[in-house]
Amino acid sequence: MNRALIVIDVQNEYFTGNLPIAHPPREESLAAILRAMDAAERHGIPVIVVRHTAPAASPLFAEGSHGRELREEVAARPYAHLVDKTKASAFHETGLAGRLDGIDTVAIAGYMTQNCDESTARDAFHLGFAVEFLSDATGTVPLANAAGALSARQVHENVLVVMQSNFAAVTTTGEWIDAVAAGVPLPRPSIWESTAPARA
């Protein structure tokens, strides 16, 4: 198997800007992201860093703003490609798929769990990649709108369950690093197993 690590939107907006990550705690998730990047470098796994950009008048990720800049610790680490995007998925009109020639498995880390991470994971799945979703190297914020309200923990954990049901192997960073070191795949998700409660 040939892996790549996709590090999504680890930008200042999520730390010192208008959208601070709440769960898992942002310093913990950042530490896990950096561990994954360091392990990828040790084992020759290409790292793709993704950066979100919005128009200059946007309250989030505005072009030219400090919030749009990559977190310093991520920017300082080696990576194979920097992908700029304007939509949730890192694959949308970015040419990312073409940069993954020879790769059959992608690992997802970064922010936010239910938005750019999930969108990228779903697109990768539909493009034929095996997907690994790093549960402690991703994170999100609480949500509230006309449909209801969820805590950051609820948002995060709900996405992990859905990912594991069909789209991605959900794993901790430590488990992923062990699998990388051993050169073995993670157990694949199973829609049949995940829907067992519906048949009970």
Automatic annotation (TrEMBL):
The UniProt record lists the keyword tRNA-binding: no
One Pfam family recorded for the sequence: Isochorismatase
Gene3D superfamilies per record: Isochorismatase-like (3.40.50.850)
Record InterPro entries: Isochorismatase-like_dom, Isochorismatase-like_hydrls, Isochorismatase-like_sf
SUPFAM superfamilies, A to Z: Isochorismatase-like hydrolases (SSF52499)
Enzyme Commission number(s) of this protein: 3.-.-.-
Domain Isochorismatase-like span(s) in chain numbering: 4-173
CDD domains, per the entry: nicotinamidase_related
UniProt keywords, alphabetically: Hydrolase
Highest taxon above the source species: Bacteria
Sample GO molecular function, one term: hydrolase activity
PANTHER family to which the protein is assigned, alphabetical: ISOCHORISMATASE-LIKE DOMAIN-CONTAINING PROTEIN, PEROXYUREIDOACRYLATE/UREIDOACRYLATE AMIDOHYDROLASE-RELATED
Stated name of the protein: Cysteine hydrolase family protein
UniProt source species: Microbispora maris
